[in-house]
Amino acid sequence: MSAEQQPGRHVDPEATTSTEPEAAPAQHAATAVATDGSPGHVQGHGASEAPADAKTLLSVEDLRMWFPVKSSGVIHRTVGHVQAVDGVSFEVAEGASLGLVGESGCGKSTTGKLITRLLNPTGGSINFQGRDIATLKERELKPLRREIQMIFQDPYTSLNPRHTVGSIIGAPLRIHKIVPENKVLDRVRELLEIVGLNPEHYNRFPNEFSGGQRQRIGIARALTLNPKLLVADEPVSALDVSIQAQVVNLLQSIQSEFGVAFLFIAHDLAIVRHFCPEVAVMYLGKVVEIGDRDSIYQRSMHPYTQALLSAVPDVKQAAIGGRRERIRLEGDVPSPINPPSGCRFRTRCPIAQDICAKVEPPLLQIGPKHKVACHFPGTIGNHPTKPATTGLLGLDADGNADPRASASSELNTSPGYADRWYDIDRQSMTGA
Amino acid sequence: MFAYTIRRVITGILLLVVMSVVTFYLFYASSTTPERYACGPKCTAAQLETTKKSLGYDEPTYVQWGKFAKGVAVGRTFPDDPELRKAAPQLVQECPAPCLGFSTGYSAPVRSLIQDKLPVSFSLAIAAFVLWMVGGVALGITAALFKGRLLDRAIVGLSLVAFAFPTFFIGLLLLKFVSIRWGLIKLPAYTPLTENPWLWATGMILPAITLAVVYMAGYIRITRAFVLETMSEDYIRTARAKGLNQRTVIGKHTLRAVLTPLVTLSGLDLAGLLGGAIITEQVFNFNGVGKLSVTAIQRFDLPLIVGIVLLVATIVIVANIIVDLLYAVIDPRVRLG
Amino acid sequence: MSSSPTQVHDGTRSQSAGDPLLVVKDLKVHFPTSDGVVKAVDGLSYTVERGKTLGIVGESGSGKSVSSSAIMGLFHGSSAQLSGQILLDGTDVLTLSEKEMRALRGRDVAMIFQDPLSALHPYYTVGAQIIEAYRVHQDVKKSVARRRAIELLDRVGIPQPDRRVDDYPHQFSGGMRQRAMIAMGLVNDPSMLIADEPTTALDVTVQAQILDLLQDLQREFNSAVIIITHDLGVVAEMTDDTLVMYGGRAVEYGKTSEILTHPEMPYTWGLLSSVPEVTGDTSAKLIPIPGNPPSLLNPPSGCHFHPRCAHRDKVPGDLCVTTTPELVPGGRDPHHLKRCHLADPEDIYLQEVLPEIAPDLVDEIAAPEQTGAPGVHGTTGTTEQGGRA
User: Which residues does the UniProt record annotate as the domain ABC transporter (chain C) (predicted)?
Assistant: First the structure.
């Protein structure tokens, strides 16, 4: 009954670990990214592009993580929930990268932990390669751990200081018993080379490496089992700027060589823009806008995305001097224990109206690869004055049920993108 | 805070119940015949049987524990067996609640035995505690302030030496030189504080110093480490950047932060000592709980052993609750609930 | 180690209108350790005028924070060896006794630290900490100091300051803690404010709020400000002058508008090319600086950057390895100083670096100067620049 015995679903262990088919690309990757030491001319990388027509690898639907809040009486009772993640849906295709951005407390890291099943979700489904892994038991998760790996933020605390690099990287091989013991070292050396470290340094301890090198070790460890999906939680934010670029380049090389898909969680909007052809913006446990790079960075429709982007200080401003024009957000993010009714962003939103407090805006597809959760979606300065969503939801302009209208059946709530979407200018469904 | 305390007290009582059960079963797991010690060396088989019965050792362990628990709750009468009571009414003794049982070795109620010895152990523990806290913290701070210099090395080195010597050695050394050879202080003996404070103090000083030296060595090193760690904190840099003088930076900002871990550690250490300092009491021949527990174990005196175990456990549990409450008072970030 | 004795350029500006409030001349901060001397800052010179902002950029270990701690006199009583001059309003703080320095610290020069959660004492209320900072230097009653604390908390944008003054730091959000930290720094009206990575620990929208606040306050108090950061975007938007540090030395120094548009030192190019931008061309490449920051215990000979420099082969001979370049004016502007042997950095930047990292800017920057016309430097993300509320 064990999932480990299911044939077919998982890649044959022999094939994944045989060194032959990878030897060549590994060499190539190593030369491309081994930037330690030799100055020479360093290969730069342009922004990542999405693979065309790739199959869906991960499909997350209505994912929820509510942490109970206990009372302080003699007997602890659950008096509320921290709604850390509340109804998040998205898809990641094979070999693709989805960026998850948002400010601290928006639930992006919790989402990452749910997908790697370090946390047990309160609700929703996580379809990985067609199978719902949201409710799997710990024992059934073991084969999954090969397929989905995680890269952590802090290269100083995420590696055990008492283990050699070789045993850290080789541990997954031993735990999953997929290579004979005498082959483990070969694989470790190969991985060290892939991430641009000296393969002969397998005997050293983590403290003998710099921060950037340790992050490379963490990446090698994550790659050990040839995962299909890497969840990278702030993989470069603890590193110096010059080292950040090295690690981002390494991740790009690895993606193009091995076809790994990434869920890239970061607060740095610029790095996400560079690494991820598709981006989801989260606020207080919900996805407020998701779309391809151009939709989010050039034509964002959600006031929060716009505020976030306009807040990033811009080097180009040096030529002009002074601060960039920006949308100023007042105050702080509200508590996720008692989030605002309706749209969670409305308390800080510059364009909020009555309907925003009454009705939660659906994550509406408004372009071929663009969804936004706002009653007044529009580019900066072009937000409509009347809610654009009422027709679809069967509401009047104040957010009350409209007896003459009913909710449209064309509202797409699935995690992926549909062929037809809602044209906000014409207020009707349209297609490619 | 109130609800928290109530909850902690309830869990504490449950823990005590569990510990008493475990003690009963552990005692019988040691495959001994406790009645033999009670009966004496010239005991016939028939006498042994009677003793066993009169002490209740013939009954299953859980029945014995049940009677003990009842005694704690409502009191009991010895011996338990009604026939024995009828046979020898002159030996019947009432033991009011909370009754911890009847010591077979001392032929006295356990509670009164412990009550007699407790002031000795308490005096010793508190006197030692004051000495080691004052000395340990002061020397620890000094060492930290002179980090790496001669004074620091001397303090740390001496504390290591003190730490290395066994308690009985330090005790005997003090006894031999201070009391016997130099005659500075007369031989230590316990006098109740209420009777004569001066005699209490002079009689207590050598054992207290003995006990304190060992603990002080540890506290010097701990305090030094805490102070050094705190001084590297960002908020200490902030304090200096305000233009505060060194005295305020150390005395106010650093010490306030060092206080928290020290309170936790010292509270638990003191609690451990209140239940008796076995070696020190032996060396100076002080009739405290420590000495009592040694005797109890030597004589397989089950009721006395259970009584002492519960006493020590109660002290530790109460100290833990107090320390946690204090923690919330000292550190505003800690919210009990 | 093998660096030839260099004539350190006097960073003092002659063209400045107001007299400089802070003049740092040939500052050296060395830490003797059992492994040798760590030269955290090795010959640093710069000036800051009243009402002006200097940005110090560099990575960890570049010495950017150490130099500001030296201005605060925080190395008093430590093993650090300091030399050179730090003239604060004419007084050399390096010659002051600890007692004299204490009187200055927090009154004439104040500092704001990176992580406000760890920089505020967890056991004292925010108000108590501000009151303490005020009463160290002002002989006033507690009630007066408390009013002052509330007034400043109000000024930095803390809602309900009369109530929040009695809160502990952990009861504040990250942004509010940094506001409180700023209030504490400003409580004695210092003429000099040093902000060490003031927004690194904050979220981007909060960072924007804090930077707005810092700028408003600077205008109001006309103080001189040093912002230490690794974020070139912050430097671009906040500062008048920029000092780029590498391995304990200044490698490029000048007007921010100059340094970030026409950088002449390969390390500055490297910084610009390793950071992607939110706006601009997506075909721009991310080109990392190879290798790791240098060891200050055993720095590379000659130019500290040479082991990581991609343009070393353009300098004749082994000059980069053998000789430390001096911090001298480059070809463009007498006030734009760079520490590099490259003869024609401008050409290399325009022809080799810029096309890779910002293809969209090549024409604009290569074209003759068209200063004063902000539209010229508009980015490709013009949709975002226009029509913003």
Answer: 24-272
